[in-house]
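Model it.
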Amino acid sequence: MKIARILLTPVVAVLITASANAQMSGYPGMGGPYGGMPAGYFQPTPAPPMNGAGPMGPGPMAPGPMNISPMDPEQAGPMNAGAMGGDNGQWYGDSGGPVEGGMVGSNPGGRLPLFQRSLFRQRTSRGYFTAEALMWHRNDGFARVINVQTPNRLTTPAGNISKFSQPFMRTSDPYFGYETLPRLTLGYVLPNDLAIEFQTFYKDDFDAKFDSYGNSNLDATFFGQQPLASNYTSADAQFINMATGVHSYELNLVETTRVFNFMTGLRYVDVRDNFLFTTFKNGSADSASIGTYNHMFGVHTGVRSHFDWNLFSLDLGTKVGYFINDAQSRTIITNTGLPGRDPGRLGGQNDSMLAETKLALSFRPSASFNVRVGYDCMWIVNTALAVDQIDENPLLGQNTTGYFLNAKGDLFLHGPSAGLEFAW
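Modeled.
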């Protein structure tokens, strides 16, 4: 408890001081940024004459700047709604419009409307920098059969697939867990209250793996059933390793003065996906690798919403983009003693779409510091993924793995986030 009091005392003191300063700075005539009335209204004025009755004598009080006329109906004076703009004591600034977040008479207890920014939180700074840690999960690959297992080799000759053979491993078996990546945002609010903002995030390897073990009865089929002499046939163990990298760079123009702020910008996204298959048979090994590359450039637009409640705020955002995708793929298969496969690099361009949404809860203890937690989702449509380059046809003479480019895959990333914002 003693440690908690020591830690909380300066925080409470800062909050009380900041709240008092924010209230004093909003009163007209006090030299604050929202002053719109003569300073004389808040300076001592001479006592009005008492009609010759002496300092304490009876008699009607003469009209003065603070009383208008005794017993008269309320009239516009320097301290009532008539002089302050006629809106229940709403504060007015030099421009004649209401000061943002300053309801006095109609808002007892200092609670502010949900859609209104408080004076304590009002940003007077122009630059801001946000550093966040994202913990994202990648969706599983499309379920394509990689190998099969034949339980009884006594009745099924090695190197053959029979009605007893069962799919044993699929490309959906490797599980992508949650992995951490950074996201950085740097922005500056221009004099017209339009912000120019740069944002980037990057992750080199969302990793996943899956291992399958057998007893000389695992047959790989993803590039056709191989002869008995191949290490891909009647194998003892076969492994899958997958990795995905995503890099994003964007430059945006963002509105800052509304509850719903529109934004637009340019964006470059780089998606790389790799599939590695390794087979082991009698101490010998072979491998097959498939790599895809997506270089996406385009424009996006969206909206950001901001709602305040005292020192807390809720931020919602969504954006959708159209991209030109320069997609490529490369398949290399080694097969000891037998023909492998290396058709070379394949490429092409296609249209891609990207949608992104975000929710964040923020706490701002001061005008220059913000702590936030949230949840993000990103969906990329029409992208080349490694497992989508696999042909499931088990017939060796008809299988086309590595000889075509499929850029119709979907990549979905999502997960929680946490970060800090600094403003100056």
